[in-house]
User: Fold this.
Amino acid sequence: MSDLFDKIVSLSKRRGFIFPSCEIYGGLANAYDYGHYGVLLKDNIKNLWFKRFVQDRTDIFRVESSIILNPKVWEASGHVKTFCDVMIEDTVTNKRYRADHLIEEFFHAKGSERNVDGLTPEELQSIIDENGILSPDGNPLSKARKFNLLFETEIGIVEGEGNRAFLRGEIAQGIFLNFKNIMDSLSPKLPFGIAQAGKAFRNEISKGQFTFRTLEFDLMEFEYFFDPENNSWEELFDFWQEKIMDFALECGLDKDKLRFRDHEDFELSHYSKRTIDLEYKFPWGYKEMFALAYRTDFDLKNHQEQSKQNLNYVYPDGKKVTPHVLEPTFGLSRLMTILLMDAYREEDVDGSQRVFLQLPFDLAPVKYAILPLIKKPELIEVADKIYKKLSEKYNCEVHLSGSIGKRYRKQDEIGTPYCITVDFDSLEDGCVTIRNRDTLKQERVSIDEL
Assistant:
């Protein structure tokens, strides 16, 4: 479906998944709010991630670090100087764009792909000049230049350079800053990981694709620390690569739309020895969804030098080592768009179109919808009793408004796996009708056996 993306944006707003932020004031570019079902879906993804990568393991521990860190952190990590995109402007409208995105979109429109990640402003400028690339409005472009993505803010009541701070542009640094705290409080044995999920902020230049690229977004990641003398980084890399794919498939994503792509040497971050992206095939081409990076010992060694604090791991025999790190990263906000697109289904049922989200049971915002056939007190009373019982374990809702057919359609569109209909026969035989979202099969089941 060529218009799949527009359908997802429309469904998200209509059914309360995702809304444009500040819409009554004209909105804000690259900013979105999550509605009731969107929050439930996002929480379910996060909970599944924590279960698979923290709760189901004994070697990964959680932290939740501050969004605003000491500015020395970002200077030490190199973000103040190097956390940049290459910006280019429409010389007529003064609209700003990412140079790499304009180039990729130019070649995509011609039926080909060209990866320009990591190229310098001069190299991107050369490609633009050679191909006569114009702005989306058809106007000439300015010279390409670097643009720092960190959001600046100020701490305190006195304005000045000394009070400058930044909203975090990634969540990894908060993990490295707590390495010593985890060591001192939990005494973990290498190898082990530290995980967190939370907000990050980037001053994006160009317009994003729904929640694929936004000013603030949710990440889930962990740093897995190990001693390279005792553990092969290649073996650990292969292990976590497999686990990343397993998680994507558990989220219900179509394996045929997923691929791993190794970063080429020119696009590797300065701290990385190897990085791969797990990419999803969007209507506009393959784009990053998750990533795995081997960051060596760059971060701990760098923070140790800059802070003058001991961040070594000490073995019982007194041997000291600066651990190396593997970093699996999962874009939660980005995954929301991907899940909605991948789960979207249309089919003809008795001459009318049915739309449904084929979400896995664990991720569906609502697991069971209890539907009294009509608004009668005696049916509502039975529905409420069923709700109270099922809601002890599952997220459920009682839906009263509209015909039973329309209520089925709404639940289909929010991805509810099962609808439970209470009718007048239920008052006599103590049974209800359960409808399966995917097969439309209906079966009669005793309320006591639900």
About this structure: The chain is about 35% helix and 30% strand.
